[in-house]
Task: structure prediction
Amino acid sequence: MSRIPIRLRLTLAFTLVMALVLAATGLFLYVRLGQELDASLNAGLRSHADAVTALVQQAGSGLRAGESSPLAPPDESFAQVVDENDEVVDATPGLGSARVLDPGQLGSARRGTVVLNLGPPPNGDDPARVLATPVDARDQRLVVVVGASRDGRAEALASLRTQLLVGGPIALLLACLAGYALAAAALRPVESMRRGAADISAASQGRRLPLSRPDDEIRRLGETLNEMLARLETALARERGFVADASHELRTPLALLKTELELAVRHPRSPEELQSALHSAVEEVDRLAQLAEDLLAIARSDRGTLPIRPAPLKLSELFADVVHRFEARAAAVGRRIEVDDPGDLALVADGLRLEQALGNLVDNALRHGSGTIRLAAIERDGQVETHVIDEGNGFPADFLAHAFERFSQADKSRRNGGAGLGLAISEVIARAHGGRAQAQNHAAGGADIWLSLPVEPRAA
Result:
């Protein structure tokens, strides 16, 4: 069933429903017509019985069966009068002296009016409906029996049955064809979108699915799919850019490392020169290892699997670790790192990851800023903000919105070193803790970058 096309499944379902509706409608009409015919036949019998009763009560004497009977047979009906001894005292021509009802039925009729469906009456050919009612005349309890042929009722029902059996399948076939046409018309836009989707590939940038004209569910589905395609294109472009930038960043240290090693092998060098070459090679290896670690952290974040191990953490201890890590490097370039005492401010976070994130912010300030670097922390609206502030020129106005994007650098020449991943890694770590990273320029000069983290970590 699952391999049958949707239009055929819809048509089959529609046909089944229509078959049930037509069958129920035909059955209702058949039963209703039978009831109407029965009601009409009963009304005719009651009218005939009233007329016969009036004749019997007016006769006074001479009630006899024979050709001179006052009971004239209207159409295919008949009448009969039976006395207390179950003898026929009067009847319509054709019945003679034979009783229409047996003694048991006559006994029931003497107690009250009864209506019965019987077979053919005496000297008759068609089944009959009979009404028997008691009449008091000549000091006797007589029974007036009137009947009519049921052949007309049977013919009417047979005619209706034939029309239903012939017209029903024709109506069902027409409904089936109409249902198939409607299903095909309704699914035509879906088929058009399917063909359009089959033609879209990674190389066909900007192509979208065709949309149907009416603003219906299928058009809204197409609009949603087109929005998804736009998001996928954006993600694909980002991944391509990520791969290109990662390749560029990996190529540079690998080329330098290869050059240093080739020179050390090909040309005779003094021990001091070899040591310098090895130090340079170690620096490039460290850079490659850090870049690989950063790329791994970003990849884990994209998969939602960046591990964090939350534990109670005092910000004073965190700041002390960061300052200890960078103070020698800052002193080498004539700069200072100052800390605004955070007091007893603490939060629950992964200390190693958070130190890595703050270290990236300090590294960014050392590379691109100037003057004193200041670390500060404040608590605001249930969030702890850890700020890294420098006294440089700040971010270029057009770069501030892209500061936390991967491989983004305000200095396109990359002369300050780095791969443009430091701020992106800091944001990844902040989001892994359920927080975020932000940046702004101070009016007096310098950049302010901070991590806003919840006191208690929550899922990103």
About this structure: Residues 311-454 form a domain with the Heat Shock Protein 90 fold (CATH 3.30.565.10). The CA atoms of residues 338 and 374 lie 5 Å apart. The two ends are 43 Å apart (CA to CA).
